[in-house]
Amino acid sequence: MPGSVDGRVSVFDRFADWTGRWVSRAWFFSFCVVLVVIWAPSILVLRNVDTWQLVINTATTIITFLLVALVQNQSTRADAAIQQKLNALIEAALDQDPGVRSETVRRQLDEAIGVERRESS
Fold first, then answer.
1. Average per-residue pLDDT for the chain
2. In whole angstroms, what is the distance from residue 102 CA to residue 33 CA?
3. Residues ≥6 apart with Cβ < 8 Å to 88
4. Do 90 and 113 form a contact (C-beta atoms < 8 A)?
C-alpha cells in the first residue's frame, strides 16, 4: 500500500530513466537517420551485399535489444506507480464513506473494486 512504497531507486532504474529520456528526443531519431544514411553508401566500400546487410542488421538488432530492456523497465515501474496511486485513491474513498465501518463490508468493497495487493520490490 502507499505507506509501504520503497523510495529507493537502483542504479539500473536511474540508468533506464536517463536512457529513456535520451532516446525519446528528436536528435536521437536524427542520429538514427544519419546512421542509415552513412550505412547506405557503404556498399561501395564493402562490395559484398551480404556483409553490407549484416552490418546494419547487427547494429540495429543490438540497439533494439538493449532499448527494449530499458523501456520495459521504465514501463513496469510506471505501471506499478500508477497502481499504487489508484490503490491510495480507493483507500481514501473507502475511508471517506461513513457506511464502510464494518470490516466485512470494507473487504467486500476492496474485492469488488479490485485493489491490488502487491509486495514492494
1. 81
2. 62
3. 1, 2
4. yes
